[in-house]
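Re-run with default settings, no changes from the original entry. Doing this only to confirm the output is reproducible before filing.
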Amino acid sequence: MLNVRILTGIVVLFATLAGLAPVHAAPAEPSPPVTVAQGHPGCAGITINTLQTPECDAVMAAHPYPDVSRIPYDLGVIAGKNFIYFKADEVPLYDGPDGEVIGTFTAGRSSYVNVLRMSGSWAEIRPGRWASLKNAVFAQPSTLTGVLINSMEMPFAWAIYDHCTSLTPGGPRNCRQSGSFRRYDLMNIYATVQVGEWDWHLVGPGQWTVQTNLSIVHPTPPAVFNWRWIGVSTYEQNLVAYEGTRPVMATLVSTGDMEEDWKRTDPGVWKVELFWEVGPMSGAAGSDDFYALDQVPYHMYFNWREALHGVYWHDNFGYYWSHGCVNLTVSDAKWLWDNWVTQDMRVYVYDEKPG
């Protein structure tokens, strides 16, 4: 299957280089979603006036953590590689370490280059072109990995901020008595109540947190498609791989800002049409947001210039951060590449809050 995918990608890539956009199949409309669960059925008695029930206490004791397994950390095709960016707009290039200047490299604040080899405080960044590492910063790929969902009786969530929880919904943060979560911690959502315009979620005994601290995965899909497909929530900044209505894998992502048209991730139903295992990405030439990135891993294009792909240059998952693509950790992109995404698979990008 991999050879077919790469061959198809090469064909479409040549069309791209020739200035020809690939022909899109008409996207299918999603089926209407059903009502989204806001907690565990055993905690249905929790309300703003009833914050504790014996039934819900039993659920929390029996299910203290989401029933998931971590995807292994694996950098795949970029394992062992080093990437750097320069804290300068123009970088002199030399013919060797401490050699003669033979040109310049236009860096930009969002440009990362693959280090071919190093010698002391020098790096060869293009064949025969060396740069000083004096103003260079090495990329640190995120160690976050998504999860495989074993079973799902209620929503679960990642903390996207370090935060303390509250003893009551809408109450003050109370680190000492209620507790706290670190960014990327996972938790079950046992019950939900609304305070003003915000949902507050019960995430443990005496632990309430507001929705803005979380990225939530719901057991009910946002739509229904046959076979395997992917849902990308730009509201929650997460991705879920589904088999029919069953959620199989979930992770945090970074999409383009929906309020900035030039770099938004377009909502709609798309089909994966191009695969490229590793290669460069660039864009926004001539602007302050110019970027050029070497060796981007696991491109899976679904909407012409929008793709699922791995990133090694940031760890901002759960927030808007991309120029329109769906950014994943390298480990998560590799898992989707190896195990899930196929030609013409549907990718449903949506922005609505569920429920």
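Residues 2-17 form the longest helix (16 residues). The chain has a mean pLDDT of 88.
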